[in-house]
Design a protein that fits this description.
Layout lengths: L24 H11 L5 H7 L4 H14 L13 H6 L4 H22 L1 H11 L6 H4 L2 H14 L4 H8 L3 H6 L13 H11 L8 H10 L25 E3 L2 E3 L3 H11 L1 H16 L6 H14 L2 H9 L2 H4 L11 H12 L5 H13 L22 H21 L1 H12 L5 H12 L7 H12 L4 H5 L10 H12 L9
Antiparallel strand pairs: 1-2
Length: 485
């Protein structure tokens, strides 16, 4: 397999604007796209008035201080609760799942980093909703992701393994002293903390699985799973050369005592590929890990990364392919277009068709992202879905298209200026050539006589403008650069 070397050579030292590396719209939008889901024009303008250091602090603090999603009435409901209320279990469960997903989509538009990290961690500590399919388990899992998203990673690992969703998905509920199941022990090391074949043996897995026994008891499949000593293996186990009658919490203690540097390196590599580039700069990851291992504070390591020269290096910009939710949510954030409720309902389905169904990653290893998001079928689907969204605005909120053009271009009457202003709000970097902008301008001009533009008779108050913006939006969504962030 080919090994690629990162061309991003800037350091992890704080980014300080200079003539060669200015604090400009390109870098502000880059930060908004990677840390959240893009930005409105006013958000970009506001960020340019403060230092990069303060800007990053604001983005992180916003998510740190945002309250968790409100606890729903059904958070602890089992099938008996639905029966007692005369509610259909299947119908209400689907409605609950949709309510939570809509809540996450709303967070994507308001607290970008927190919502982005919820998706990131759901793709790291993978469970699959279809495997347990109860609202109370989903809420417990979601709340755990949200609570620990920017917290202490050791606490996160300790909490996530006791959730009913995880105990069901990775067969912890089947792991007893009478019938051991190694599945969670294996993934705890291989995927969640150490990495494949990195610092553990098959014996460690077997012994760890014994220590994780006992979480097998529940009234039925809709009830939470709890610990009962009757199915716990109370014999001595040897894990990473430590011997004792270890239980679940002992496993986590020993893991972080004995393997902290390996854990830090594994997690920092995943954070790097998610937020910076699919091609890893090993030197930067090592520096990140050296900091992370001190206290495993997720917030602190992200502050260091996001404030760095490396993160703001121009070679970092536009190097990642947008996920389906990146694509749809950034479009909404940039345009600010109104949407009917049916669109939000359709969005979950559409993004699932493009390969990203919330809380249902493809397998225990999660979505691999980047190039895996695009193939011959999903690329066409991306174009079609965005066209559907654009026509939705045309049919229902026609004048918002005009407002968007006025806002983007500061009410210019030059079609080239308007076209470039709109395109640049969506693209990570300027287009390659003037000819690319000119071709787009020709699309925007539509079939109006050229002399209207030459004589400056035409302006953004013309009745044709909303349709002209539609044509331009459809055109620019076909650009390869539109798929990048």
């Amino acid at each position: 397999m080919a090994v690629f070397t990162s061309c991003i050579t800037s350091s992890l030292q704080p980014y300080v604007p200079s003539t060669e590396n200015p604090w400009d719209e390109t870098r502000v939008r880059h930060a908004f796209r990677r840390i959240g889901y893009d930005a409105s024009k006013s958000m970009v303008a506001s960020a340019l008035t403060i230092s990069p250091d303060l800007f990053i602090d604001q983005l992180i603090n916003e998510s740190l201080n945002a309250p968790n999603w409100p606890t729903p009435s059904w958070a602890t409901f089992t099938n008996n609760d639905y029966n007692n209320l005369g509610l259909d279990f299947d119908e209400q469960t689907q409605a609950n799942h949709a309510e939570l997903m809509f809540g996450l989509i709303d967070q994507m538009q308001t607290v970008g980093l927190k919502s982005r990290l919820i998706l990131f961690w759901s793709n790291h500590f993978v469970t699959r909703l279809e495997e347990y399919y109860t609202s109370n388990h989903l809420y417990e899992y979601f709340n755990t992701l949200e609570t620990h998203a920017l917290g202490n990673f050791e606490d996160f690992v300790r909490a996530i393994g006791k959730t009913s969703a995880m105990l069901m998905f990775l067969n912890g509920v089947e792991n007893t002293s009478f019938s051991p199941n190694e599945n969670y022990a294996r993934e705890l090391y291989e995927l969640f903390t150490l990495g494949v074949d990195n610092g553990y043996t098959q014996t460690d897995i077997v012994e760890t699985s014994k220590a994780l026994t006992g979480y097998n008891h529940r009234q039925n499949w809709t009830y939470p799973i709890y610990f009962d000593a009757s199915t716990f293996n109370s014999e001595d186990k040897t894990i990473f050369n430590q011997t004792g009658n270890w239980d679940y919490d002992d496993v986590i203690d020993i893991l972080f005592q004995e393997k902290a540097p390996l854990i830090a390196a594994h997690i920092c590599k995943k954070l790097y590929t998610y937020f910076v580039s699919p091609t890893v700069n090993e030197t930067i990851v090592t520096e990140m890990a050296n900091q992370f291992v001190i206290d495993f504070n997720i917030e602190n390591i992200l502050r260091t990364l996001f404030k760095s020269q490396h993160f703001f290096d121009v070679k970092t910009i536009g190097t990642q392919i947008k996920s389906p939710y990146d694509l749809s949510m950034s479009y909404l954030k940039v345009t600010g277009f109104s949407l009917q409720q049916e669109f939000y309902e359709a969005m979950i389905w559409f993004n699932g068709l493009m390969g990203q169904q919330l809380f249902d990653p493809v397998d225990v290893a999660g979505w691999q992202g980047d190039r895996d998001w695009i193939n011959s079928s999903t690329l066409g689907g991306r174009w079609e879905i965005l066209q559907w969204v654009i026509w939705h605005t045309w049919n229902n909120y026609n004048e918002e298209l005009r407002t968007f053009a006025i806002e983007s271009s500061d009410n210019s009457n030059d079609p080239y200026v308007i076209t470039k202003a709109i395109i640049d709000r969506f693209m990570p970097l300027e287009l390659f050539s003037v000819e690319d902008y000119q071709a787009a301008t020709d699309v925007f001009k539509h079939d109006l006589p050229e002399n209207y533009y030459e004589n400056q008779q035409w302006n953004l108050q013309w009745s044709s403008v909303p349709f002209q913006v539609v044509l331009l939006l459809i055109h620019l969504t076909k650009f390869p650069e539109f798929q990048l962030k």
